[in-house]
Amino acid sequence: MKIAIVCYPTFGGSGVVATELGIALSKRGHEIHFVTYHQPVRLETLNANLHFHEVHVPKYDLFKYQPYELALSSKLVDVVKEHDVDVLHVHYAIPHAYAAYMAQQILKDAGIHIPIVTTLHGTDITLVGSHPFYKSAVTFSINHSNVVTAVSESLKQDTLKLFDVKQDIHVVPNFIDPTKYNPRDKPCKRSLIANEEEAIVTHISNLRPLKRIGDVIQIFNTIAAAIPAKLLIVGEGPDKSKAIALVKRLKLVDKVVFLGKSSEIDKILCYTDLFLLPSEKESFGLAALEAMLHKVPVISSNAGGLSEVNSHGKTGYLYPVGDVAAMAKGALSLLTNPELHNTFKENAYEHAKSFDLNRVISSYEGLYAKAVG
Ligand code: GMT
User: Is the pTM of this model over 0.90?
Assistant: First the structure.
């Protein structure tokens, strides 16, 4: 099949899922066309089955806001015509599903029918999409997609609660490629970042307020008061300066390392002992799943779809949002008990493998066939 994938090309979970999916589909013989404003960060090489089409938005001083949706719709029309694309798969409703609908209508005028598969990822629904300024356009785009998927049951329920959806929503969870990560197959360069006796605790996100980076630091503060430990904060985002200020206030400067955006997540997770994700909202928590594949147990909140990924008392612990005391206690119970920690590490790895890419790919292939059919 020829599939055009629209996504955000950034480090965010939706872009990562879209890119990894496209790469995997290309290996199964499909011809994939990524359409976005920048080459996706995880898309390192292009080949006969993997193409990238850049969306340019010409800048005119006349406009206060440059019309990205318009440029994206036009680009989609061109790509579909030039490459005989069978289906559009758009990740993140805003504004991708809306732009895809416009492209569909434009192509209809030319006698071409192009079906749309829309995958909802989280904040396109729970935070941004349900805002009154966007809600009617998002509802319309969902209802006019040929197939709609959500990355967790929790996100499906949120979507049904927040929007007047007349569509079936198929739950297709996010995934990992178990062949891509060989946890601990090489010696991890642990000494680069911490001393022998220090536990390494990691948080990876886009440091938006809903990630509750303050909670991450407070949990770590309790951990560091009890045992030698280092906290690695990976990612960039609006709450970074607040986080730096809190680290200074709690006198943790020599124990907290801000690593910024990284393309070496597997290397960081290789030497990580525990992963923290205390988010206020999280439709799935791909970062937690990637940690688990590297045998890293997860201390998380129980928000949204996290309980569909992290299993309490098995792969980590889940607590109500904001309960930093309980999260710190759970973290210390693992970090101070090597036998229990090892059991959780193995459990995390085994559980992560149940999100095998190959199962998910077949679901998407089935849905493409349904959309086309
Ligand atoms: O978490 C973010 O802020 C990024 C966001 C995105 O759109 O990339 O992530 C969302 O999609 C990911 C992939 O499906 C999910 O793993 C994240 O849980 C989800 N984020 C939220 O729901 C807050």
Answer: yes
- Say if residue 136 is in the same domain as residue 200: no
Q: How far is the CA of 203 from the centre of ligand 1 (A)?
A: 15
**Domain annotation covers residue 184:** no
40 lines ligand 1 (CB under 6 A): no
Alpha carbons within 13 A on the beta-carbon side of 72: 25
185 found inside a domain: no
Nearest ligand 1 atom to the CA of 126 is 22
Domain total in the chain: 2
| Digit-coded pLDDT (tens) for 253-295 | 999 999 999 888 999 999 999 999 999 999 999 999 999 999 9
Question: Is the shortest distance between the CB of 206 and ligand 1 below 6 Å?
Answer: yes
Give the structural domain span for 302.
190-354
